[in-house]
Specification:
The chain is of the alpha+beta class. 26% of the residues lie in helices and 42% in strands.
Length: 115
Amino acid sequence: MKRFTKVLALAMVLAMTCLLLASCGLSGTYKNNGLFGFGATELTFKGSKITVELGGVEAEGTYKIKDDKITIEFPDENEDEATLGDLFQLLNGEHSFEKGDDYIKIGGTKYTKAD
């Protein structure tokens, strides 16, 4: 009986840990219309992946959130996209992060939940 109780307790701890880790990530699409509607940016989060779309060009990277910081990393091959060069420089690295009910803020830039 003691062994069953220990196994059950361990299973509960593992399940709670998985739920906690899953709640730290983002999912879905967030948009920023840019300045006067130009340079609209779309960020899509799924698991630990981020896809950025700007002007019909897409690039994929990874992200991690810890406390009130987000770290975004894009593979080097994405830097070849001239239209996204400045955006990669802006999004690559560690930034302040805030999450609300229908928005996120990355480095002070607000993105609204699209779906």
